[in-house]
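USER: Note each token:
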Amino acid sequence: MAEQAPRISAAPATRLPLPNELQEEIFDLLDTADLAKAAAACTSFRKIIVAPSFLRRLLRRLPPPRLLGFLEDEGHSTPCLHSFHHNSAPVARFVAGAADFALSFLPDHPNLWRIRDASDGRILLSHASRRPWDLVVCDPLHRSYVRVPQIPDHVAAGTRRPRLSWYAFLVPAGGEEEPPLQVVWMMHQGGEIIVFAFSSSTGEWRGVQFSDWHRDSNAHLSLSYRHYAHGCFYWTFWRLDTALMLDMREMNFSIFQLPRVSQGPRSVVVEHGEGNLGWLHLGYNGILLYSRTWQGNGVGAAADWNLTRAIPLPDDSLKYKIVGAADGYLLLQAFPKHFSPQQTPQARYFTLKLETLLIEELFVSLNKGVRNTHLYVNFPPPLALPSI
């Protein structure tokens, strides 16, 4: 009987991991819908896809605008992102699939955090059961957050614990690719407005107070309704043609002259091209655009404003309201002017892109009006604080 040759067991196959560079080349071939599925399927895939270097390449091949949706804030609950069915819908679907808008990565329960502002893809939140300056800034796409350092006692000296009239918001990046994180905390105290501002570039808080705004007995200032343009925040006075301006570079307040049209929540200060300031007023028949040369000190009179354009509204049967303005867009909410008591009117939403002044309808599946909205635009820059 012939002797059988001994069997040699095959060595187990060794699975060599693909280098990240090769995986990036493969992901470059996918559309945004498949990228969202890959990011949701595997943690290692998601880390590659949401890395700043890959997102920059993705942005270069996606058409603008990159308005991804708006965040609805209903008090002490996690924010809800409403995506749009329009020309940036593929990007919005990618972000909705890859990001965690339930904010499950936050410390404590997500429902204990309340959204205060959103800008450049970042979200600012305050804790519901702690001190009002207990703030975090989070990045839903990268599922990360940083705590904003507490305001030091020597900076906050002399301020009392606020009750209701305090506000926290982010300073927009202004086109910088990797901007510092800047947070503003603002409150009323008697007749004074007190502001503290934090920047991650210095790791320090600065403070400023202002008390000259209430000299006019008709002055009513709503700090919850603010605008941002050319490095400054603006708050308008109801029934007056002036605004309170906070220059974030110089960290000082001044009174700013506006056009002589009715003020309030139907108007907004915007950037209108290089070196110009714009004032958009929502009238009954359209949106009026006033413009003037930008002067950082706010010097000027109402006569310096010129009516440059009247923008017609898309549907005369609707009643419009400005419900958001950020990152180069104006968000309009509209309801039918006439409807029967048995009907539930459906809210419709439009954006005005400030660069082109074009109005576009956003087909949102939302059968109600929303009060607190924050536009969500672009991918967030890296989120990190320096060691302090």
Summary: The chain has a mean pLDDT of 77. The helical segments are 20-28, 32-41, 43-49, 52-60, 89-98, 153-156. DSSP finds six helices and 23 strands in the chain. The CA atoms of residues 353 and 364 lie 17 Å apart.
